[in-house]
Design goal:
Keywords: Coiled coil. The protein is an all-alpha fold and about 270 residues long. It is about 90% helix and about 5% strand. The protein has 3 domains: about 40 residues; about 190 residues, Helix Hairpins (Orthogonal Bundle); about 30 residues, no CATH class.
Length: about 270
């Protein structure tokens, strides 16, 4: 599908450029960017996160190579520092010897004794001259070594800071990937819950139907109970067979107490 889109876009751009003179490459570039963006948006988030993890993992060889260069630079810097220390030690010894010869020559002696041997004043002066020249050369060497050491130490410090920044950046990327992973997982759970809400709606509709059926049954049962109670009360107010016999007897026997009781009963009703 993507290949067909690229071919169709290229053909359309070519026809447009031939017909109205519009530059072909501007259309081609725009079409390629649009297709690339659409293809990127169409990739699943899980795949993109996996690709991000792989890119972070691919940083390891570069980090290891930088660590190796830093380790080598540390060794070279330490060797240079030792060389400078040795040179400065020889400079200190040379300076002490020059000062001794110079002080001896100030005595204006004919001969001078050093290490069990004697030397003339001219020999001592010549030796002092040579020592002074070597000292100057060694001093220049020490100055160069000191400059080199300072530059290497600064370079090493910058490399270590860059290495620390790279490691911190990788850790930050790892944290961001984990954060995105958590957000995506929460998104997937929310999407699942959203789908389950459709089932909850159907269950609610079923519950409403059952409640409606139960309500109708309750109404009909209550209506039946009211009818039975109403007619039951009417039956209780009607005279019984015993009351009828008493009434007939009172009429036949002219019993005033029964008649009075009847009148009282009527008045109470």
């Amino acid at each position: 599908m993507l290949k067909k889109m690229l071919i169709a876009g290229g053909a359309l751009a070519l026809l447009s450029s031939l017909s109205i003179g519009v530059p072909f490459w501007s259309y081609a570039k725009c079409g390629f960017n649009s297709v690339s963006t659409a293809a990127s948006d169409a990739m699943p988030l899980e795949w993109e996160l996996k690709r991000a993890r792989q890119m972070i993992h691919d940083l390891q060889p570069e980090i290891e190579a930088n660590a190796h260069r830093i380790a080598r630079e540390k060794v070279e810097t330490a060797r240079l520092a030792k060389q400078l220390d040795d040179t400065e030690s020889r400079l200190a010894k040379s300076k002490s010897d020059i000062a001794r010869l110079h002080d001896d020559l100030q005595q204006d002696s004919v001969v001078y004794a050093y290490g069990g041997r004697t030397y003339t004043s001219a020999q001592v002066k010549a030796d002092l001259t040579n020592r002074a020249k070597r000292h100057q050369t060694r001093q220049a060497t020490a100055d160069k070594l000191r400059q080199m050491l300072s530059a290497r130490e600064a370079s090493l410090q910058a490399a270590q800071q860059q290495m620390d920044a790279m490691l911190n950046a990788r850790r930050q990327l790892e944290v961001e990937v984990e954060n995105l992973q958590a957000r995506m997982s929460a998104l997937r759970v929310a999407q699942t819950n959203s789908q389950l809400n459709l089932d909850d709606s159907r269950l609610a509709q079923t519950r409403d139907l059952l409640d409606e059926i139960a309500t109708r049954i309750d109404v009909q049962e209550e209506t039946l109970a009211v009818d039975v109670e109403y007619f039951g009360e009417i039956d209780l107010d009607q005279p019984t067979e015993a009351d009828l016999d008493a009434l007939v007897s009172s009429i036949l026997n002219d019993d005033p107490s029964v008649e009075e009781e009847k009148l009282v009963s009527i008045q109470l009703d």
